[in-house]
Amino acid sequence: MAMNFSPSTPMGSIYQQKPKILLSLQPPQGSKNVSCGAASHYVKLEVRLRASAAKPPVVKHLLQKRRVLRCATIEEIEAEKSFIEEDVKERMEKTVDTVRSSFNSIRTGRSNPAMLDKIEVEYYGAPTNLKSIAQISTPDASSLLVKPYDKSALKAIEKAIVNSDLGMTPNNDGEVIRLAIPQLTSERRKELSKIVAKQAEEGKVALRNVRRDAIKSYEKLEKEKKLSEDNVKDLSSDLQKVTDEYMKKIDSLYKQKEKELLTV
Predict the structure, then answer these.
(1) Is the pTM here over 0.90, yes or no?
(2) Listed residue (198, 122, 211) closest to 164, CA to CA
């Protein structure tokens, strides 16, 4: 006997049934006991169950969220390589500039305005670089002259110089500040030479770190199949050459500073 699904049958109960249950409800071929109403209900149910079984809600959600993968273009790969190379040079330049600034702040027996580069003055409640609020000049080889743009800052400038590690006593005459550069003793020169050597080595370590980061970026591109192993080797070799160039710049700065310190 065929079973009729009445229109009042809850749709939730229909969707909970498994498709294989429909097979047991299918009337035998040639049966005349199936009414048009029952057949129409059966057809509707079969279509809905098959559609639901084919693409349940979870599968539909996954299909919508599925990412479409594509190969990167040559232009995109070149752009990534260029970005890495530019970042390397920018960071290495900053490293060399930092080393140069550190060297300049170490005084020798001769006057140099750069000796005051790291002096910070408490100006209107905020730490301010001395060079931005005063003009610094060298009247002779053994003195510095500091002329503030605002005379009210003289006391603050004098205090900042006294509290620094320059080892100089400022002479404030109410208009300008004069600094006499004391001669370095042989022992002090050797101490400063060691400090300079340490700063140079720290600069080289910073350059190696930049190189290391760049190689990691190249290896990442290799894992993403954007670069081959040979590409990475060639790029790493070029990177080493750039690193060596900046290493030489630091060596040159160090030798120059060491010569200044040891020259009496």
Answers:
(1) no
(2) 122
